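In response to the reviewer comment on reproducibility (Comment 2.3), we provide here a single inverse folding case reported in full, input and output, so that an independent group could reproduce the run without further information from us. The structure tokens appear first.
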């Protein structure tokens, strides 16, 4: 989708720049009452803007062509794409000011003073940028990693100069300032455990059922070798509830499959136990008369 967007914008801006280049110099247009519009000057300004935007989207298009599963490489690609947008804006501003015959050394000196003033009032902005730099250097997380921060768990979809974007399993995107990325739990390099508790009636012959559980867990693993990294394990009786005996099962999965793995495990345990003649329990109430 991004590739198509960049290609369309590249064609539009390149076409606009080409038309302006072919038209060449224009003439002044008298608007009356002492006002005049230098069409040639406006044309040159538009040419600079369209040419820079075309170059920006050409670079972004080329970056989008790189496909890699390496999280570190993806991080630098997204950071480069993010930086290109800022650079394009700076180049356009400098180019337009130059065409307007603005004294650039004076402007740059003034911008330095303004930046210093803004810097004192935008401490959080500077903190975000500096923190983002150390995040990259320390390799704390990369694009594609699954992390948890501030109670929000998601996949890192973008690391920018100021912010980091996380996308959860529901497609919700949370944008967090880099300075707020603290106490990060990076789950990508670790295996996770999909946990399922299955309840059986008290009337079940538990020792006899436990003797057949290895057969059931082996069947579940054979059905889903792409989800489970090893055969699910039966840990034993988790709880003695009011109307059932709760059995706990765990399976080793990748972090990205932790929820789907639990759902699959629940489903197959239900089907498997029913095949073994074990039905789900129902609430029971004993009434005693004196």
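Designed residues, in position order:
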């Amino acid at each position: 989708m991004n590739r198509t967007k960049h290609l369309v914008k590249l064609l539009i801006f390149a076409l606009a720049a080409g038309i302006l280049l072919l038209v060449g110099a224009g003439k002044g247009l008298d608007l009356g009452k002492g006002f005049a519009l230098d069409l040639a000057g406006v044309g040159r300004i538009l040419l600079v803007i369209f040419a820079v935007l075309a170059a920006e989207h050409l670079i972004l298009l080329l970056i989008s062509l790189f496909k890699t599963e390496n999280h570190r490489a993806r991080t630098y690609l997204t950071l480069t794409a993010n930086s290109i947008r800022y650079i394009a804006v700076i180049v356009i501003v400098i180019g337009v000011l130059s065409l307007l015959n603005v004294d650039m050394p004076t402007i740059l000196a003034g911008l330095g003073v303004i930046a210093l003033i803004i810097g004192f009032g935008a401490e959080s902005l500077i903190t975000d940028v500096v923190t983002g730099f150390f995040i990259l250097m320390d390799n704390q997380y990369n694009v594609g990693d699954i992390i948890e921060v501030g109670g929000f768990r998601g996949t890192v979809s973008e690391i920018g100069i100021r912010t980091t974007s996380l996308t959860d399993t529901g497609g919700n995107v949370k944008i967090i300032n880099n300075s707020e990325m603290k106490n990060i739990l990076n789950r990508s390099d670790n295996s996770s455990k999909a946990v399922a508790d299955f309840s059986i009636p008290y009337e079940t012959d538990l020792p006899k059922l436990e003797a057949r559980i290895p057969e059931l867990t082996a069947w579940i693993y054979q059905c889903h070798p792409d989800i489970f990294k090893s055969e699910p394990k039966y840990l034993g009786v988790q709880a003695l509830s009011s109307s059932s005996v709760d059995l706990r099962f765990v399976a080793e999965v990748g972090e990205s499959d932790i929820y789907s793995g639990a759902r699959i495990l629940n489903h197959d345990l239900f089907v498997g136990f029913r095949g073994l003649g074990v039905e789900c329990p129902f609430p029971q109430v004993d009434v005693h008369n004196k």
